[in-house]
Amino acid sequence: MISKRKIVIFNVHSESKRLVRFKEEARKKDLDVYVVNSYSLSLTDRGIFHNGEEIIFNRGDIVWFVANPTINHYLAGCLHKRFEDQIVIWPNAQAIDLSDKYCASVFFSNINIPTPKTVLVNSFDEEKISLLAEKYVEGFPCVIKSCRGSMGKNVAIVHSSQDVVAFINKSIGAKNIVPLKRSSYLLQEFIKESAGSDYRALCLGGKILGIIKRTAQNGDFKANISLGGKAEVVEANNEIKEMATKIMNEGQISYAGIDFIKSNGGYLAIEINTSAQFKGFEAATGINVAERILENLLKMSDDKHEN
Predict the structure, then answer these.
(1) Whether the predicted model's global pTM rises above the 0.85 cut
(2) Could you tell me if 217 and 171 lie in one domain?
(3) How many of the other CB atoms lie within 10 Å of CB of 161?
Protein backbone atom coordinates (compact mmCIF):
# COMPACT_ATOMS: atom_id res chain seq x y z
CA MET A 1 0.00 0.00 0.00
CA ILE A 2 1.28 3.47 -0.93
CA SER A 3 1.06 5.53 2.26
CA LYS A 4 3.96 7.98 2.68
CA ARG A 5 4.60 11.40 1.10
CA LYS A 6 4.83 10.90 -2.64
CA ILE A 7 4.19 11.99 -6.19
CA VAL A 8 1.71 9.72 -7.97
CA ILE A 9 1.67 9.88 -11.76
CA PHE A 10 -1.38 8.47 -13.51
CA ASN A 11 -0.53 7.31 -17.00
CA VAL A 12 -2.06 4.99 -19.61
CA HIS A 13 1.01 4.11 -21.67
CA SER A 14 4.40 2.57 -21.04
CA GLU A 15 6.90 4.90 -19.40
CA SER A 16 8.06 7.53 -21.87
CA LYS A 17 11.26 9.56 -21.97
CA ARG A 18 9.30 12.31 -20.22
CA LEU A 19 8.62 10.13 -17.17
CA VAL A 20 12.17 8.80 -17.11
CA ARG A 21 13.46 12.37 -17.05
CA PHE A 22 10.99 13.39 -14.34
CA LYS A 23 11.98 10.46 -12.11
CA GLU A 24 15.66 11.34 -12.60
CA GLU A 25 15.01 14.84 -11.27
CA ALA A 26 12.85 13.53 -8.40
CA ARG A 27 15.61 11.19 -7.25
CA LYS A 28 17.94 14.18 -6.91
CA LYS A 29 15.51 15.56 -4.32
CA ASP A 30 14.99 12.17 -2.65
CA LEU A 31 11.31 12.13 -3.60
CA ASP A 32 9.27 8.98 -4.14
CA VAL A 33 7.53 8.78 -7.51
CA TYR A 34 4.93 6.11 -8.33
CA VAL A 35 3.70 5.63 -11.89
CA VAL A 36 0.28 3.95 -12.01
CA ASN A 37 -1.60 2.84 -15.11
CA SER A 38 -5.05 4.40 -14.81
CA TYR A 39 -6.64 1.41 -16.54
CA SER A 40 -5.39 -0.86 -13.73
CA LEU A 41 -7.39 1.08 -11.11
CA SER A 42 -10.72 0.26 -9.55
CA LEU A 43 -12.68 3.46 -8.87
CA THR A 44 -15.31 2.89 -6.20
CA ASP A 45 -17.57 5.01 -4.02
CA ARG A 46 -15.26 4.23 -1.08
CA GLY A 47 -11.87 4.91 -2.62
CA ILE A 48 -9.36 4.22 -5.39
CA PHE A 49 -7.80 0.77 -5.49
CA HIS A 50 -4.75 -0.56 -7.33
CA ASN A 51 -4.29 -4.33 -7.52
CA GLY A 52 -6.84 -4.67 -4.74
CA GLU A 53 -5.13 -2.25 -2.33
CA GLU A 54 -6.40 1.24 -1.61
CA ILE A 55 -4.15 4.13 -2.59
CA ILE A 56 -3.89 6.32 0.49
CA PHE A 57 -3.19 10.01 -0.11
CA ASN A 58 -1.58 12.07 2.63
CA ARG A 59 -1.40 15.80 3.16
CA GLY A 60 1.28 17.21 0.87
CA ASP A 61 1.08 14.47 -1.77
CA ILE A 62 1.04 15.42 -5.44
CA VAL A 63 -0.97 13.83 -8.26
CA TRP A 64 -0.03 14.40 -11.90
CA PHE A 65 -2.13 13.20 -14.85
CA VAL A 66 0.25 12.77 -17.79
CA ALA A 67 -2.43 11.42 -20.14
CA ASN A 68 -6.02 12.51 -20.59
CA PRO A 69 -8.27 9.57 -21.48
CA THR A 70 -11.84 9.38 -20.21
CA ILE A 71 -10.91 7.37 -17.12
CA ASN A 72 -8.68 10.20 -15.90
CA HIS A 73 -11.65 12.59 -16.06
CA TYR A 74 -13.51 10.33 -13.64
CA LEU A 75 -10.37 9.91 -11.55
CA ALA A 76 -9.76 13.66 -11.38
CA GLY A 77 -13.35 14.23 -10.29
CA CYS A 78 -13.06 11.59 -7.58
CA LEU A 79 -9.79 13.02 -6.25
CA HIS A 80 -11.11 16.59 -6.20
CA LYS A 81 -14.15 15.54 -4.19
CA ARG A 82 -12.26 13.40 -1.69
CA PHE A 83 -8.80 14.95 -1.31
CA GLU A 84 -8.77 18.48 -2.75
CA ASP A 85 -7.90 20.09 0.59
CA GLN A 86 -5.01 17.70 1.22
CA ILE A 87 -3.16 17.16 -2.05
CA VAL A 88 -2.14 18.94 -5.25
CA ILE A 89 -4.06 17.61 -8.26
CA TRP A 90 -2.42 18.60 -11.53
CA PRO A 91 -3.71 19.48 -14.04
CA ASN A 92 -7.06 20.48 -12.55
CA ALA A 93 -10.36 19.21 -13.92
CA GLN A 94 -10.91 22.29 -16.10
CA ALA A 95 -7.50 21.98 -17.72
CA ILE A 96 -8.09 18.28 -18.40
CA ASP A 97 -11.34 19.19 -20.16
CA LEU A 98 -9.41 21.59 -22.39
CA SER A 99 -7.24 18.73 -23.62
CA ASP A 100 -10.32 17.69 -25.59
CA LYS A 101 -9.76 19.26 -29.02
CA TYR A 102 -13.40 20.22 -29.53
CA CYS A 103 -13.63 21.78 -26.05
CA ALA A 104 -10.40 23.67 -26.77
CA SER A 105 -11.82 25.04 -30.03
CA VAL A 106 -14.94 26.28 -28.25
CA PHE A 107 -12.77 27.78 -25.51
CA PHE A 108 -10.59 29.63 -28.04
CA SER A 109 -13.63 31.12 -29.73
CA ASN A 110 -15.19 32.14 -26.42
CA ILE A 111 -12.11 34.15 -25.40
CA ASN A 112 -11.59 35.62 -28.89
CA ILE A 113 -8.49 33.64 -29.78
CA PRO A 114 -8.33 33.00 -33.54
CA THR A 115 -8.77 29.30 -34.38
CA PRO A 116 -9.70 27.28 -37.46
CA LYS A 117 -13.42 26.65 -38.03
CA THR A 118 -14.43 23.42 -36.29
CA VAL A 119 -17.50 21.16 -36.17
CA LEU A 120 -18.17 17.99 -34.19
CA VAL A 121 -19.02 14.91 -36.26
CA ASN A 122 -22.60 14.01 -35.29
CA SER A 123 -23.52 11.53 -38.00
CA PHE A 124 -22.08 8.69 -40.08
CA ASP A 125 -24.36 9.42 -42.98
CA GLU A 126 -22.12 10.50 -45.85
CA GLU A 127 -24.57 13.11 -47.14
CA LYS A 128 -24.88 14.70 -43.71
CA ILE A 129 -21.09 14.70 -43.27
CA SER A 130 -20.73 16.49 -46.61
CA LEU A 131 -23.19 19.13 -45.46
CA LEU A 132 -21.30 19.58 -42.18
CA ALA A 133 -18.03 20.10 -44.02
CA GLU A 134 -19.51 22.46 -46.60
CA LYS A 135 -21.45 24.59 -44.15
CA TYR A 136 -19.05 24.82 -41.21
CA VAL A 137 -15.40 24.18 -42.23
CA GLU A 138 -15.15 25.54 -45.78
CA GLY A 139 -15.72 22.12 -47.36
CA PHE A 140 -13.23 19.45 -48.39
CA PRO A 141 -10.34 18.98 -48.04
CA CYS A 142 -10.48 19.45 -44.29
CA VAL A 143 -8.78 17.95 -41.26
CA ILE A 144 -10.32 15.18 -39.17
CA LYS A 145 -9.16 14.61 -35.60
CA SER A 146 -10.01 12.40 -32.71
CA CYS A 147 -11.15 14.74 -29.94
CA ARG A 148 -8.72 13.05 -27.59
CA GLY A 149 -5.21 12.08 -28.50
CA SER A 150 -1.70 13.43 -28.83
CA MET A 151 1.54 13.13 -30.80
CA GLY A 152 -0.30 13.55 -34.11
CA LYS A 153 -2.17 10.27 -33.80
CA ASN A 154 -5.66 9.96 -35.33
CA VAL A 155 -5.27 13.15 -37.38
CA ALA A 156 -5.55 13.25 -41.17
CA ILE A 157 -6.61 15.30 -44.17
CA VAL A 158 -9.86 14.03 -45.67
CA HIS A 159 -11.13 14.82 -49.17
CA SER A 160 -14.65 13.42 -48.98
CA SER A 161 -17.33 12.13 -46.64
CA GLN A 162 -16.25 8.61 -47.60
CA ASP A 163 -12.77 9.45 -46.31
CA VAL A 164 -14.31 10.59 -43.02
CA VAL A 165 -16.18 7.33 -42.46
CA ALA A 166 -13.17 5.26 -43.51
CA PHE A 167 -10.90 7.19 -41.13
CA ILE A 168 -13.22 6.67 -38.17
CA ASN A 169 -13.66 2.97 -38.95
CA LYS A 170 -9.92 2.49 -39.17
CA SER A 171 -9.08 4.52 -36.07
CA ILE A 172 -11.38 2.54 -33.79
CA GLY A 173 -10.59 -0.76 -35.48
CA ALA A 174 -14.20 -1.73 -36.18
CA LYS A 175 -16.74 -1.31 -38.96
CA ASN A 176 -19.78 -1.15 -36.68
CA ILE A 177 -19.37 2.16 -34.86
CA VAL A 178 -21.34 2.49 -31.65
CA PRO A 179 -23.38 5.72 -31.24
CA LEU A 180 -21.08 6.95 -28.47
CA LYS A 181 -18.26 7.31 -30.99
CA ARG A 182 -20.07 9.90 -33.06
CA SER A 183 -19.10 12.65 -30.63
CA SER A 184 -15.45 11.57 -30.56
CA TYR A 185 -14.29 13.17 -33.82
CA LEU A 186 -14.24 16.64 -35.30
CA LEU A 187 -13.73 18.24 -38.67
CA GLN A 188 -11.56 21.33 -38.86
CA GLU A 189 -10.85 23.85 -41.57
CA PHE A 190 -7.68 22.95 -43.50
CA ILE A 191 -5.24 25.88 -43.54
CA LYS A 192 -3.25 24.89 -46.62
CA GLU A 193 -0.44 27.40 -46.16
CA SER A 194 0.36 25.99 -42.70
CA ALA A 195 0.79 22.38 -43.82
CA GLY A 196 4.01 20.83 -42.55
CA SER A 197 4.79 23.27 -39.76
CA ASP A 198 3.41 24.49 -36.45
CA TYR A 199 4.49 26.33 -33.32
CA ARG A 200 4.43 25.11 -29.74
CA ALA A 201 4.53 27.41 -26.73
CA LEU A 202 5.46 25.37 -23.67
CA CYS A 203 3.88 26.99 -20.63
CA LEU A 204 4.44 26.33 -16.94
CA GLY A 205 3.34 28.11 -13.79
CA GLY A 206 1.94 31.12 -15.61
CA LYS A 207 5.10 31.63 -17.69
CA ILE A 208 6.14 30.69 -21.21
CA LEU A 209 9.28 28.55 -21.03
CA GLY A 210 9.87 28.97 -24.73
CA ILE A 211 8.49 28.60 -28.23
CA ILE A 212 9.64 26.10 -30.84
CA LYS A 213 8.75 25.77 -34.48
CA ARG A 214 8.20 22.19 -35.60
CA THR A 215 8.71 21.30 -39.26
CA ALA A 216 7.80 17.99 -40.91
CA GLN A 217 10.70 16.22 -42.63
CA ASN A 218 8.78 13.59 -44.57
CA GLY A 219 6.28 15.59 -46.59
CA ASP A 220 3.53 15.06 -44.01
CA PHE A 221 1.25 17.95 -43.07
CA LYS A 222 1.77 17.06 -39.39
CA ALA A 223 4.94 18.40 -37.78
CA ASN A 224 4.94 16.48 -34.46
CA ILE A 225 8.43 15.61 -33.23
CA SER A 226 7.17 12.12 -32.38
CA LEU A 227 6.47 11.70 -36.12
CA GLY A 228 9.93 12.86 -37.16
CA GLY A 229 9.43 16.63 -37.15
CA LYS A 230 12.42 18.91 -36.55
CA ALA A 231 12.33 21.50 -33.77
CA GLU A 232 13.98 24.91 -33.77
CA VAL A 233 13.80 27.71 -31.22
CA VAL A 234 11.72 30.78 -31.97
CA GLU A 235 13.42 33.56 -30.04
CA ALA A 236 10.66 36.17 -30.04
CA ASN A 237 7.08 36.06 -31.21
CA ASN A 238 4.89 38.54 -29.40
CA GLU A 239 1.70 37.43 -31.15
CA ILE A 240 2.04 33.84 -29.96
CA LYS A 241 3.19 34.95 -26.50
CA GLU A 242 0.16 37.20 -26.04
CA MET A 243 -2.27 34.50 -27.15
CA ALA A 244 -0.60 31.78 -25.08
CA THR A 245 -0.61 33.98 -21.97
CA LYS A 246 -4.31 34.74 -22.41
CA ILE A 247 -5.10 31.03 -22.89
CA MET A 248 -3.13 30.13 -19.74
CA ASN A 249 -4.82 32.79 -17.63
CA GLU A 250 -8.37 32.27 -18.87
CA GLY A 251 -8.07 28.48 -18.70
CA GLN A 252 -6.29 28.40 -15.32
CA ILE A 253 -3.69 26.14 -16.90
CA SER A 254 -0.54 25.30 -14.93
CA TYR A 255 1.27 23.30 -17.61
CA ALA A 256 0.59 22.79 -21.30
CA GLY A 257 1.97 22.76 -24.77
CA ILE A 258 -0.22 25.21 -26.68
CA ASP A 259 -0.05 24.69 -30.42
CA PHE A 260 -0.46 27.28 -33.17
CA ILE A 261 -0.37 27.33 -36.94
CA LYS A 262 0.29 30.30 -39.20
CA SER A 263 -2.34 31.28 -41.76
CA ASN A 264 -2.17 34.08 -44.29
CA GLY A 265 -4.19 36.13 -41.81
CA GLY A 266 -2.04 35.45 -38.77
CA TYR A 267 -1.54 32.80 -36.10
CA LEU A 268 -4.34 30.40 -35.12
CA ALA A 269 -4.51 28.36 -31.91
CA ILE A 270 -5.34 24.72 -32.57
CA GLU A 271 -4.76 22.62 -29.44
CA ILE A 272 -3.97 22.62 -25.74
CA ASN A 273 -1.96 19.60 -24.63
CA THR A 274 -2.03 19.46 -20.83
CA SER A 275 0.18 16.37 -20.86
CA ALA A 276 2.71 17.73 -23.34
CA GLN A 277 5.83 15.73 -24.13
CA PHE A 278 9.02 17.76 -23.76
CA LYS A 279 11.88 15.63 -25.10
CA GLY A 280 12.13 17.62 -28.32
CA PHE A 281 11.69 20.91 -26.49
CA GLU A 282 14.52 20.12 -24.06
CA ALA A 283 16.80 19.12 -26.93
CA ALA A 284 16.05 22.27 -28.92
CA THR A 285 16.18 24.78 -26.08
CA GLY A 286 18.52 23.26 -23.49
CA ILE A 287 15.90 23.99 -20.81
CA ASN A 288 15.57 21.34 -18.10
CA VAL A 289 11.78 21.02 -18.32
CA ALA A 290 11.59 18.00 -15.99
CA GLU A 291 13.32 19.97 -13.23
CA ARG A 292 11.07 22.99 -13.83
CA ILE A 293 7.93 20.84 -13.62
CA LEU A 294 9.08 19.23 -10.39
CA GLU A 295 9.93 22.60 -8.83
CA ASN A 296 6.54 23.97 -9.88
CA LEU A 297 4.68 21.01 -8.37
CA LEU A 298 6.58 21.33 -5.08
CA LYS A 299 5.88 25.07 -4.96
CA MET A 300 2.17 24.43 -5.59
CA SER A 301 2.17 21.95 -2.70
CA ASP A 302 4.03 24.35 -0.38
CA ASP A 303 1.73 27.26 -1.27
CA LYS A 304 -1.36 25.12 -0.74
CA HIS A 305 -0.40 24.17 2.78
CA GLU A 306 0.84 27.59 3.83
CA ASN A 307 -2.69 28.94 3.37
Answers:
(1) yes
(2) no
(3) 22
